[in-house]
């Protein structure tokens, strides 16, 4: 009967690094029409590194890094870590930060040694009347290289551009190709800008890219996919992914991600490797063939 089959199924999963928390999920896997992936930490390693540092005229790299890293030292964001790490590697001592604030989907703001500093994307700079027209071509170029470009401003003057790249996980491309081969569509949902998101989507062969989504907008994107495709799986690792994982028909958490995502999910990919999804689909199909 079903209970035995489920137990067998779950046991087989554990061997392959798939932890099934909700038995029903095993059944749903075989009916999935689309799999939506978070980008950072799911398709990519979630460990971005600084790749480009472009100071404004008359300034040095360390001027820009000092201002940016001092402020980002208060942020938990992977982008912030990349900037702080590169300041550390250059032995730059960080300044004193007051009035720090994180602006969701846009960046960070605060005072470094009493001077107003901003680090973030175009939206943040526009909101604060920082002119970046002269850097627009550079930003576009960096984004087409799949990098996330951030601007650094002091007061309302642009003092530099910092770009980071987050390496793609070894098995992302292969897993996505296999999923598509099974006739299941793939999508990526990210807060990152459209150009960077598309460059990464192209590298891994994702069929649809949904970008510039605010953290609380991911759940709505899953609902939209459900209207179109009915049975939707969501894969994610972050705190912000938890509501979307709950909303989806099968929530899949990355085992190396946050506890909140794991608790919200039906299935955990223990080792953080996306290829576990293929095993889970095969497991579901095989298990429910047996008990028919
Ligand atoms: P994701 O998790 O997909 O990267 P987020 O909503 O966290 O999406 O971030 C969206 C965008 O907001 C980033 O690509 C970046 O441009 C900007 N941003 C967010 N946090 C920071 C930060 N700490 N420093 C600079 N920029 C940031
Ligand atoms: Mg993530």
Automatic annotation (TrEMBL):
Source domain of life? Bacteria
User: Per the record, GO CC terms?
Assistant: plasma membrane
Main location as per UniProt: membrane
The protein's location, in the record's own words, is: Cell membrane
Q: Which GO terms describe its biological process?
A: copper ion homeostasis
Provide the alphabetized UniProt keywords.
ATP-binding, Cell membrane, Copper, Copper transport, Ion transport, Magnesium, Membrane, Metal-binding, Nucleotide-binding, Repeat, Translocase, Transmembrane, Transmembrane helix, Transport
Molecular-function annotations in GO: ATP binding; ATP hydrolysis activity; copper ion binding; P-type divalent copper transporter activity; P-type monovalent copper transporter activity
Give the family from UniProt: Belongs to the cation transport ATPase (P-type) (TC 3.A.3) family. Type IB subfamily.
What is the role of this chain? Involved in copper transport.
- What protein am I looking at? Copper-exporting P-type ATPase
Upper lineage is: Bacteria, Bacillati, Bacillota, Clostridia, Eubacteriales
């Amino acid at each position: 009967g079903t209970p035995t089959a489920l137990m067998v199924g779950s046991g087989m999963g554990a061997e392959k690094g798939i932890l099934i928390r909700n038995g029903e999920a095993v059944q749903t896997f075989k009916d999935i029409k689309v799999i939506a992936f978070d980008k950072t930490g799911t398709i990519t390693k979630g460990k971005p590194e600084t790749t480009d540092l472009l100071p404004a005229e008359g300034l040095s790299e360390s001027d820009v890094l000092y201002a940016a890293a001092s402020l980002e030292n208060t942020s938990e964001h992977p982008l912030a870590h990349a900037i702080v790490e590169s300041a550390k590697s250059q032995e730059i001592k960080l300044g004193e930060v007051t009035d720090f604030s994180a602006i969701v989907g846009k960046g960070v703001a605060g005072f470094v040694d009493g001077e107003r500093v901003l680090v973030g994307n175009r939206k943040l700079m526009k909101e604060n009347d920082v002119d970046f027209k002269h850097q627009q071509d550079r930003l576009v170029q960096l984004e087409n290289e799949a990098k996330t470009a951030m601007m650094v401003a002091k007061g309302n003057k642009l003092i530099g551009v910092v770009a980071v790249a987050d390496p793609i996980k070894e098995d992302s491309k292969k897993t996505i190709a296999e999923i598509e081969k099974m006739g299941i569509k793939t999508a990526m949902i990210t807060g990152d800008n459209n150009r960077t998101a598309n460059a990464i989507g192209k590298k891994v062969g994702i069929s649809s890219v949904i970008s510039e989504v605010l953290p609380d907008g991911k759940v709505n994107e899953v609902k939209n996919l459900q209207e179109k495709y009915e049975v939707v799986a969501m894969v994610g690792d972050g705190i912000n992914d938890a509501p979307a994982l709950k909303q989806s028909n099968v929530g899949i958490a990355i085992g190396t991600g946050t506890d909140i995502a794991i608790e919200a999910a039906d299935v955990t990919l223990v080792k953080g490797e996306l290829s576990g999804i293929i095993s889970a689909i095969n497991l579901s199909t095989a298990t429910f063939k047996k008990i028919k």
